[in-house]
Design brief:
This protein has about 200 residues and is mostly helical. The protein has a single domain, classed as Arp2/3 complex 21 kDa subunit ARPC3 (Orthogonal Bundle). About 75% of the residues lie in helices and about 0% in strands. It has a two-stranded antiparallel sheet with strand order 1-2. Helix 2 runs antiparallel to helix 3, helix 3 runs antiparallel to helix 4 and helix 4 runs antiparallel to helix 5. It is globular and about 50 Å long. The relative contact order is 0.14. It comes from Keratinibaculum paraultunense. It is found in: Cell membrane.
Length: about 200
Amino acid sequence: MYTLRKEDFNTRTMVKISVLGVIAFILMLLDFPLWFTPPFLKFDVSDVPALIGSFALGPMAGVIVQLVKNLLKILLAGTNTAVVGEIANFIVGSVFAYVAGLIYYKEKTFKNAVIGLVVGTIAMTVVISIANYYIMIPFYAKAYGMPLDKIITISGAVNKYVVDLKSLIIFAVIPFNLLKGVVVSLITILLYKRVSPILKS
């Protein structure tokens, strides 16, 4: 079991986390929609720095990287989703980074890294799907004074399988997060061994 220790967050570690947060923020700005997702679901690889931080510095480091990234997004770039997008991004990214890092932390092997990334991908997909269905999308609609049916219509124009909120989750949110998890995991695996010596020094 992972236990948070005071020495995990000394000044040097917090500087590393901050740098990773800034990199994640920059990557977050390089987002783009996918062919099967509505406009409010945009793809980016900003979870990579959080995962690297989680593996190298501990699971909570990944969560803090996600927090820094989203705070910078709100403060410097603004939000066009009434902060709903940033909250969702923080939730999904934190679950991904923490779960993957926690499994890797128990025994730092390549096998555990892969297992952690797979379980993390599944965990974040489940969590964000439930959150989107019951909280995020209804709140987004209410915040913008937009009928939920209009969001479904916009989503259905991109993805013909989307006809209601349930199908939006099944045919857009779930595949979007699974694809994102796979791509981000592959990039993390390719980069981690090269970057980790710098973070651990």
